[in-house]
Specification:
Length: about 270
């Protein structure tokens, strides 16, 4: 199996998701050794599918907390949050974890601050689940695919159990069913990867939009204001200097008048 893509997504509701993301339905053969082989491969895989469903539910909870519909993209959700929380930051912590730092709310007081805390916790939960999915998905998928490769040996193992004809027939049908289930694993894994990948892309797009389209113009405006203030300071200094220069001749004229008065007095 190729390496599971290490990205973090945008997904709809659990019910609306791709139907290929589902657990393997394994039938028992009532042969302990054979059933153990199927169980050891299917159980970890089904637990990974549960992780994906929990991941999707956490994403849905996050959007709800943000006041958005579950059908809204994660990018739009985060960009909208930036307007409500002007100091909001999205920090990258590792490959899949995105840390949300809302900062102080623009309005809403204590309730908005409480929501910010819940948003941070829920977003962190999404990142933790995504990381866990990536860490186990490849291994559990490989184990399932090995079952398909070993199908002939498993059937041979069943025949060696000296089962009654009717039991052997039922067990053989169960093995055929189970092998068919395990053949679905590659498609299910791809669907799970896409869920994680899509969310990661949505978060990164939001982060870029917030930095480039929202924060950069603000920084540019602040720089322009600072430059304007600098120009005003220069004008004030110039006006002050001109005023002082205008005052110098008046002082000189006063001095001349004093001298003339003194001369006339002396005469």
């Amino acid at each position: 199996m190729g390496a599971l893509m290490c990205f973090f997504p945008d997904c709809g509701s659990v019910e609306d998701d791709d139907a290929t993301i589902k657990k393997l339905e394994i039938e028992k053969t009532d042969c302990e050794h054979v059933d153990k082989i199927f169980e050891n491969a299917a159980t970890p895989f089904n637990e990974t599918v549960d992780l994906v469903f929990n991941f999707q539910k956490s994403v849905a909870d996050f959007k709800k907390l943000a006041g958005r519909k579950n059908t809204d993209s994660v990018k739009d959700t985060l960009v909208d949050l930036k307007k409500r929380y002007p100091d909001l930051e999205i920090q990258v912590d590792g490959t899949l974890k995105f840390v949300l730092v809302p900062g102080k709310a623009k309005a809403g007081g204590a309730k908005a601050e409480e929501t910010a805390t819940k948003l941070t916790e829920t977003f962190g939960s999404v990142g933790n689940l995504a990381t866990e999915i990536v860490e186990v998905a490849d291994d559990v998928s490989d184990a399932c695919e090995n079952i398909v490769k070993e199908a002939r040996e498993i059937k041979g193992n069943l025949k060696s159990q000296n089962l009654q004809p009717d039991h052997l027939l039922r067990a053989t049908r169960s093995i055929f069913h189970n092998i068919t289930e395990f053949r679905k694993v590659p498609d299910i894994e791809i669907a799970m990867v896409d869920v994680v990948h899509d969310f990661a892309d949505g978060v990164r797009e939001a982060r870029e939009m917030i930095e480039v389209k929202l924060e950069k113009p603000k920084a540019d405006n602040d720089a322009v204001k600072e430059e304007d203030n600098g120009e005003k300071d220069k004008e004030v200094e110039k006006d002050t200097s001109d005023t002082k220069n205008d005052q110098k001749p008046k002082s000189s004229e006063k001095s001349e008048a004093t001298e003339m008065t003194k001369l006339l007095h002396d005469e």
